[in-house]
Target: NAD(P)H dehydrogenase (quinone)
Amino acid sequence: MQVPGTLQEDLLCKMSAPPNSDAPLITSNDLAEADAFVFGFPTRFSMMAAQFKAFLGATGGL
Model:
């Protein structure tokens, strides 16, 4: 699964960004229903991607 992007589609086109994966988008409901989860992502400057950070920030109610 993948987290939702944070940039608008028209900006991604202007940046010549590669197309998104066909993997389904994860929601906070998916996390609430899971028995366990494992996150994996590359880091840049020892930080997780902004998209993932935004997703985790949105799960504060869990």
